[in-house]
Design goal:
The protein contains ten helices and twelve strands. The protein is of the alpha/beta class. A six-stranded mixed beta sheet has the order 6-7-8-3-9-10, with helices on both faces. The N and C termini lie far apart (50 Å). Its EC number is 7.6.2.8.
């Protein structure tokens, strides 16, 4: 296992635990999607996994070494962290911005060399932003900036990519592009942990899903087993139907409108005319 988390807990102060008792492991080429409502602690957990916040309980082991015993450079060579998008004020070019990801591989006063620039260009190519490499990073679109941040993390040559709500504030098209890149990176050998509000993202990208609720994981396992109508109702307080779409060959999550009858279980037989006639009487 690359990453092993055992009974992890975190608090900002002595009053309230943000999360506790969280345990899971991450192997090669695995994708874990962490779902949960706003303010539940998903971003805090991601920062703890990146060794930015210290746990108050439990442990995080990186290649069987306690992450607290490792320095920034050691962690950054294994874990790439992509925070939620934030405003950039300095007009670095996109290429310069991505090149900053090579910092863990440089000496204290060293400048990037030819190999570092090659690695940065490879990362730019992986996310498909070659056409904007000379643009100032503070003048590109939100979707382009999110891809630039992913490229910067990839330039670190990590084994694990941590993504904190990578599709937040993006339009539908850019959301799909980012998710497709995450899926491709995992198939190419990278392990990924991402947080999201959207259950469909788990079906699109993930091997495993964790639902975070009440300061811990209320469910953890395969996406098809964890992302259920019951769990989503308990997590978000809304009625949804999970059905399998043969057109896209995956499960999809469909929210109900108020008063809408629940869709059938795709594993159950179609309604017969007699059954359909009974539905109004059953409401």
């Amino acid at each position: 296992m690359i990453l092993d988390v055992n009974q992890a807990g975190f608090r900002y102060d002595s009053v309230r635990m943000i999360f506790s008792g969280i345990s899971f492991s991450l192997g090669e080429q695995e994708v874990l999607c962490i779902l949960g409502p706003n303010g539940i602690g998903k971003s805090t957990l991601i920062r703890c996994l990146a060794n930015l916040y210290p746990l108050c309980a439990g442990s995080i082991r990186l290649h069987d070494r306690d992450i607290r015993s490792l320095n920034y450079r050691d962690v950054a060579r294994v874990i790439g962290y992509v925070p939620q998008a934030h405003e950039i004020t300095f007009p670095f070019s996109v290429r310069e911005f991505v090149l900053m990801g090579r910092a863990p591989h440089l000496g204290l006063f060293a400048s990037p060399g030819k190999e570092d620039r090659t690695k940065a260009d490879e990362a730019i190519g992986l996310v498909g932003i070659q056409k904007i490499t000379d643009k100032p990073v503070n003048e590109i679109s939100g979707g382009e900036y999110q891809l630039a941040m992913i490229a910067r993390a990839l330039a670190q040559e990590p084994e694990v990519l941590l993504l904190d709500e990578p599709t937040s504030h993006l339009d539908f098209g850019n959301q799909i592009r980012v998710l497709e890149i995450i899926d491709r990176l995992a198939r190419d050998g990278l392990s990924v942990i991402m947080s999201s509000h959207f259950p469909d993202h788990a079906f699109l990208t993930s091997n495993n899903v964790a639902i975070m609720q009440h300061g811990s994981f209320m469910a953890y396992g395969l996406a098809e087993e964890v992302v259920t109508e019951t769990n989503l109702k308990a997590t978000y307080g809304v009625d949804v139907s999970i059905t399998y779409s043969h057109d896209v060959e995956r499960h999809v999550c469909v929210p109900h409108r108020s008063g809408q009858c629940r869709c059938r279980d795709p594993k159950q037989p179609e309604y017969s005319p007699k059954m359909a006639a009974m539905v109004p009487a059953m409401r």
